[in-house]
Amino acid sequence: MKPFANALLAWFDEHGRHDLPWQHPRDAYRVWLSETMLQQTQVATVVGYFERFVEALPTLRELAAAPEDQVLALWSGLGYYRRARFLHRAAQLCVERHDGQLPRDFDALVALPGIGRSTGGAILAQAHGLRFPILDGNVKRVLTRYHGIHGHPGESAVEKSLWQRADTHTPTMRVADYTQAIMDLGATVCTRTKPRCGTCPLADSCIALRDGLVTLLPSPKPAKTTPTRETVMLVLRDARGRVLLERRGPQGVWPGLWSLPEAADVDAAWRSARQCARIDDAQALPPFTHVFSHYKLRIEPLLFDGATPTRSIADNAAPTPESRWCDTSELVALGLPAPVRKLLQNLEGHLA
DNA sequence: AAATCGGGGAT
DNA sequence: ATCCCAGATTT
User: Could you tell me which residue ranges the HhH-GPD domain spans (predicted)?
Assistant: First the structure.
């Protein structure tokens, strides 16, 4: 009937975790607290925090009545204190709205701060045996592999598909165990690296295993479209064909390399150019884009030909930035950024 | 250095 | 509804 759930439950009976502190007793408050802690921290670490927390604040009402400082102190070391504040606030709301209990109604539950679809489902399933799916990181990994789902789980279409699968697999019987089982499988067998497919109860029908995709799924987050910055590069060339270069500062890209002077836009380029040389006119050269790992740089070269170097520059007396007029023959010896070298080479070939 | 995690908040 | 960020840990 539900081969996925049955295989998982059989595995869980033998290999799952049955001794986690929030399983004994398994009430809504303890499940909620554990799920919230587990959103950010691994089981091994959470256990100690959980035990201290419930010893100090064993019930939702006591949590609601506790001073925030105490809640934060109990949370101290777990990080992400916003979640502790949500927890505290939600407890107070439960006292106000729900008679001091976490609601058994899904919509009322997810209306509380810090409880979303997955945590809400986990509470209802684990504490009350209600048939609600969960979709935490472990489950996402199991399902993307089992069904061979490509695409980053963060993409809405993929996530939608995952919720759909999660729902279909969730059984009506033993929902609490099932929920724990699929999380345990993800945590101990279907791990992100070095999954132990040899011991997996779902190996028979796992698409990723069948197709050799286990290491490829879940798909990594697509490289975010890199921002594009724009710059105008000034090619100041004097009558002898020398080009003005500047040494870049120690910060930013191309630290310490010799490069063309830059400006934010054409106007600024003109202002800057006139400080270095007497200029007649400018010619826009074809723009091109240089790709860095973290952004794209669209370069608009602006050629000032027949520039007459200003005396101070010609004498190398300019204070900052360090700059010099270079012969094309000197360029090879200088450490030029690749796109600048390319630009100057094209210039030579094109206009020489 | 980059990915991760589930939920909140902005748009 | 859809995108983007949080905030600390892990890889």
Answer: 37-188
